From TrEMBL:
It comes from Vibrio xiamenensis. InterPro entries: ATPase_NBD, ROK, WH-like_DNA-bd_sf, WH_DNA-bd_sf. SUPFAM superfamilies: Actin-like ATPase domain, Winged helix' DNA-binding domain. Coiled coil: none annotated. This is Sugar kinase of the NBD/HSP70 family, may contain an N-terminal HTH domain. The lineage of its organism: Bacteria, Pseudomonadati, Pseudomonadota, Gammaproteobacteria, Vibrionales. Keywords: Kinase, Transferase. It comes from the Bacteria. It holds the Pfam family HTH_24.
């Protein structure tokens, strides 16, 4: 069984998630004694990991001192490695984007990735302390061992990428599936607000989802929870969602079957595709959106989340597809209760790389709290 987090770790997580927050509010949320809360916050203040943000007046008694993360205590690097593009970013502990650098998309050897990171750190962070590196990888990964088990995009099989990069840069390196990384970052950087559960679905050349339950990432028994792209679409065939609804599948199908498409210069994105859609293109995008919306509706029925996000890179967006996905989701979502699960779209261009930085922050904060507890 996993070891329960220490008191310092629990307090630090609460400060990150609920800043600005007072010690008395921390006592309520943690169910710890005021003495335990004070000891933990004093340790974190003395190390400079958190800081005082000012006072909050209350109706009775003394004003309360508010606490929050010190965003400049250290910095993290996030790396997006997926089918849309490869991107390196640096953020502070609050998720603020400091710098970025795009690197060649497609296959990338571990050495090439290390060289790109070295170049980025030399040019973008020569005077900044880097606390951790996070890799958000399109593929199957083992976050505990740091192995990329399989990435078709990168052509990696059983690559101990975290250990290789950590040895090269003497910095902790964490890896995560790209959908899970994005889901974790919404908690760390606050996009899900006060929600306790959320589905963060990712759409592009692949389709997946990160599942947040009780503000924790749900991985499933074998770490494969949320692989919705591999789910059957339920039309009597054996096709899975990615074979019908992913941008890669749509572009390939229309290149082969739509006579209106110029085979010598075919559309490269769904945005280009829908500028002047043929009847077959319109039908294909609508069908893809329908199956995507039904899949999200089924997820909402299975997990009953507070909110659902559908995230896409800006260049992969098809308004036709997204509109149909929303219609089908609303039609097939759970209707036995009056509550409606909202669905929102995210198309920010840095979100996967910032997601990598976000889960690196999450893991780094646990390490910092543990180091404090181990100090004698």
């Amino acid at each position: 069984m996993p070891t329960p987090p220490s008191i310092t770790t629990r307090i630090l997580r609460l400060i990150v998630e609920h800043a600005s927050i007072s010690q008395s509010d921390l006592k309520v949320r943690s169910a710890l004694s005021m003495s335990a809360v004070s000891q933990a916050t004093n340790k974190l203040l003395n190390k400079g990991i958190i800081r005082e943000l000012g006072l909050r007046k209350v109706s009775m008694g003394r004003p309360k001192t508010l606490l929050g993360i010190n965003p400049d205590f250290t910095y993290v690097i996030g790396v997006q490695l997926n089918a849309e593009r490869n991107l390196i970013v640096m953020t502070d502990l609050a998720g603020t984007l400091i710098s970025e650098q795009e690197i060649p998309a497609g296959k990338l050897t571990p050495k090439q990735l290390g060289d790109a990171l070295a170049k980025f750190m030399k040019s973008s962070a020569p005077q900044r302390q880097i606390g951790a590196i996070g890799l958000a990888i399109s593929g199957i990964v083992d976050p505990d061992s740091g192995y990329c088990l399989r990435s078709i995009l990168l052509d990696w099989n059983n690559v101990d990428i975290a250990a290789q990069l950590s040895e090269r840069f003497s910095i902790p390196v964490f890896i995560e599936n790209d959908a899970n990384a994005l889901a974790l970052a919404t908690v760390v950087f606050g996009q899900i607000g006060q929600a306790h559960s959320a589905i963060i679905a990712t759409y592009g050349q692949g389709i997946g989802a990160g599942i947040i339950l009780n503000r924790q990432l749900y991985r499933g028994r074998h770490g494969n929870a949320g692989e919705i792209g591999n789910g059957l679409i339920g039309d009597g065939t054996e096709r899975v969602l990615e074979d019908v609804a992913s941008s890669r599948a749509i572009l390939h199908y229309l290149w082969e079957n739509d006579p209106s498409i110029d085979k010598r210069n075919p559309p490269r994105t769904l945005q280009e595709l829908e500028q002047n859609p043929s009847p077959l293109t319109l039908e294909t995008l609508t069908t893809a959106g329908h199956h995507l919306g039904v899949s999200l509706a089924n997820l909402s029925i299975a997990f009953d989340p507070d909110i659902i996000y559908l995230t896409t890179e800006p260049q992969t967006v098809s308004r036709i597809l997204l509109d149909q996905a929303l219609q089908s989701f609303q039609k097939y979502r759970l209707r036995i209760t009056p509550q409606v699960t909202p669905i929102h779209f995210l198309t920010e261009s840095h979100m996967w790389a910032q997601g990598a930085a976000g889960f690196a922050v999450n893991r780094l904060l646990d390490m910092l709290a543990t180091d404090i507890d181990n100090d004698k």
